[in-house]
Amino acid sequence: MNKKPYIERTKTLKRSHDYRRRYFEHDKGWQIPPSVQGFLLKVFPNKAFESLYFCPYCGRVMWDKPKIVVDHIHSIRRVQYTKHLREHFKTLPDGVNHISNLVACCVRCNGKKGKKGGLWVFRGIYGRYFMPIIRLILILSVLTIVIFLAYGTTVNA
Ligand SMILES: [Zn+2]
User: Fold this and answer.
1) How far is the CA of 6 from the centre of ligand 1 (A)?
2) How far apart are the C-alpha atoms of 123 and 58, rounded to whole Å?
3) Angle at 122 between CA 50 and CA 75, to 5 degrees
4) Alpha carbon 114 to chain centroid, angstroms
5) pLDDT at position 45, please?
6) Cα of 44 to ligand 1 centre, how many Å?
7) How far does residue 68's CA lie from ligand 1's centre (Å)?
8) Distance, CA 58 to ligand 1 centroid (Å)?
9) At the N or C end, where does the chain have fewer CB atoms within 10 A?
10) Domain boundaries along the sequence of the chain
């Protein structure tokens, strides 16, 4: 008989209503100084500027809080379907909504990730420490190449 995998739907394995609020209470990001906030508000009057966050998946800098997504590093569906993850999260007070399983990320990466595991989980946990640097290196290399192509060959011409 082809049995469907058993999905446990206890409270600890469900999305909670307050995980977003709890995440931002815990992780204040990089605070933007009030003087800079005032300046930014003049330029973009309808945005919310408090602090900067870095997407752990792509390294993008995020400053518009309403647009920041709080992602479950081990996605809820994945946890419901995977025995060892279920066992692990059942031991935590907030289950899958425990702070250790939450991370602020950009909308784009959240959409791409879905319920994938593996490298996405690794980046979810450690990406904030190295993805911004990788992104900066990539941007600088592209800039260098562009500058070289534009001016590099015309020297002494
Ligand atoms: Zn991202």
Assistant:
1) 32
2) 9
3) 75
4) 13
5) 85
6) 22
7) 10
8) 4
9) N
10) 11-152
